[in-house]
Specification:
about 425 residues; alpha/beta; Four Helix Bundle (Hemerythrin (Met), subunit A); 3 domains; 14 helices; binds ligand FFO; binds guanosine-5'-triphosphate; binds magnesium ion
């Protein structure tokens, strides 16, 4: 493994800038700049020098391979956060034989060195992207190895079941057909129930991780854009009294009490001669259909029944003008009903994620489904085939944690990481 370095903090001006080195020689390279660093995991306040040239005053520390994030020797230089300092220290490190790390390379090394399993890596990636508390909590559980521990438990069940099957094959009377002991099927049934349970929580967890899309729809001039602006407390979308103002879909990211939600402002729905408006209306319908939930906006409490789905919310807009009617009354002008609407929206979305599990990526769910499918129908099979299906299920669990078959995913996962992680 070569020696790599990168700014672990975002590059640019900041209070502190951390440069991290990983690989054999990390300590030596740091010592060339900072002088002797006798103890691992001790912070030293040092003047960094490149030859005679003073570079910065910094906190410097190093970790042994056994107690670092990557599982390799690691050193960290905590610099003053001036871009020129990081640049200058980077050149000095390059001159000492270190090369700039690629995106996600520190974490990739942690994975390759067995410090993290693939589900933990995905969890860490989710943590880097998390914007809300619910996303952070889910990511932290995943990054903490919860799924790997479950997979270990399931593997043990498979190993035990496999051993029982092998024993029944080895010791069976040559005259009598081999029989799989009932205990095997009991074990596999329990395992299948566990797997089903995890799989059933996948979609909800995926929603939690990626966030919800909520389309704001209704006739032109209903007050959709005004409502969005009120929620955003800024002018996200153009508002006018001309019907057909909004054409493109405008996205507003919200942290709705911990849930990640993207509100979509859309073109007012109507038949129109205007070509461009027509394109907007088509797009509005498509996005409304694909969204997790729709807010139907109308001063009179009307809905487009073709787009109404169970769980949608009817919003009676401009409540300052029209006193009564169906739906949740809100006014973008006075602010009446906005908090109530957001509370209602939150509660409906929270219902959707009530059953969320720890599996939140399609790759993970696919591995679990493969394991479950391998075990479906085993009770009708002869022992040799039962043993084979148990091996297949175990291989699927190995794929889940990246013990096998990880190669094809690594580039996809790590290119989404930033440099320095
Ligand atoms: N300065 C700094 N802060 C950081 C990191 C870092 O690399 N540097 N991290 C990363 O980006 C995160 C912390 N992640 C870490 C994960 C595992 C180990 C580690 O090797 N632990 C040892 C036990 C260490 C001990 O208890 O003494 C181990 O698990 O064996 C270290 C950091 C967040 N904060
Ligand atoms: N009195 C009152 N007027 C409102 C309210 N909300 C919107 N309006 C007015 O209604 C008109 C249309 O508002 P928009 O928010 O642009 O309506 P829209 O649904 O986005 O319209 P399109 O983009 O054309 O589909 C504007 O003149 C707004 O000022 C409200 O709560 N009260
Ligand atoms: Mg609009």
């Amino acid at each position: 493994m070569d020696l790599v370095f990168a700014e672990a903090t975002p590059s640019g001006r900041g209070g502190v800038s951390v440069i991290r080195l990983s690989g054999p020689g990390s300590r030596r390279a740091a010592e060339r700049l900072a002088g002797d660093l006798p103890q691992p995991r001790h912070a030293y306040f040092r003047t960094l020098r490149d030859g005679r040239e003073e570079l910065d005053q910094a906190l410097v520390l190093w970790f042994e391979a056994g107690s670092s994030f990557t599982g390799e020797e690691v050193a960290e230089l905590h610099l003053h956060g001036a871009p020129v300092v990081a640049r200058r220290v980077g050149s000095a490190l390059a001159a000492l034989g270190a090369r700039p790390a690629e995106a996600g390379e520190f974490t990739r090394r942690a994975f390759l060195n067995g410090r993290m399993d693939l589900a933990e890596v995905e969890g860490l990636g989710d943590l880097l992207e998390a914007e809300t508390d619910a996303q952070r909590r889910l990511a932290l559980r995943a990054a903490g190895g919860e799924l790997g521990r479950k997979a270990d438990g399931w593997r043990e069940m498979l190993i035990r079941a496999g051993a029982l099957v092998e024993a029944s094959v080895d010791f069976a009377d040559e005259e009598v057909p081999d029989e799989v002991p009932d205990e095997v099927f009991d074990l596999l049934r329990r395992l299948t129930t566990d797997l089903e349970q995890e799989i059933s929580g996948f979609r909800a967890a995926e929603r939690l991780r990626t966030g919800f899309e909520v389309a704001v729809i209704g006739a032109p001039n209903a007050g959709k854009s005004s409502l969005i602006n009120r929620i955003a407390r800024r002018e996200v979308a153009l508002v006018s009294d001309i019907a057909g103002t909004t054409r493109d879909v405008i996205e507003l990211r919200l942290d709705l009490r911990g849930l990640a939600v993207t509100l979509l402002d859309t073109a007012g729905l109507r038949a129109t001669e205007d070509h461009v408006e027509g394109l907007g209306v088509r797009r509005a319908r498509e996005r409304a259909e694909a969204a997790d939930l729709r807010l139907h906006i109308s001063p009179e409490g009307h809905v487009d029944s073709a787009l109404w789905r169970d769980g949608d919310i009817l919003v009676r807009s401009k409540s300052d003008l029209i006193a009564q009617g169906d739906g949740l009354a809100v006014s973008a002008l006075s602010g009446e009903g906005i908090e109530g609407l957001l509370a209602e929206l939150h509660d409906r979305l929270a219902l959707c994620v009530a059953g969320a599990g720890i599996v939140s990526h399609e790759r993970q769910a696919a591995a679990l489904r493969d394991a479950r499918d391998a075990l479906a129908g085993v009770s009708d099979l002869p022992p040799e085939l039962v043993a084979e299906m148990i091996r297949q299920a175990a291989a699927s669990l190995d794929r889940l944690v990246g013990r096998i078959g990880a190669e094809e995913y690594l580039d996809v996962i790590f290119t989404s990481f930033c440099i320095g992680k």
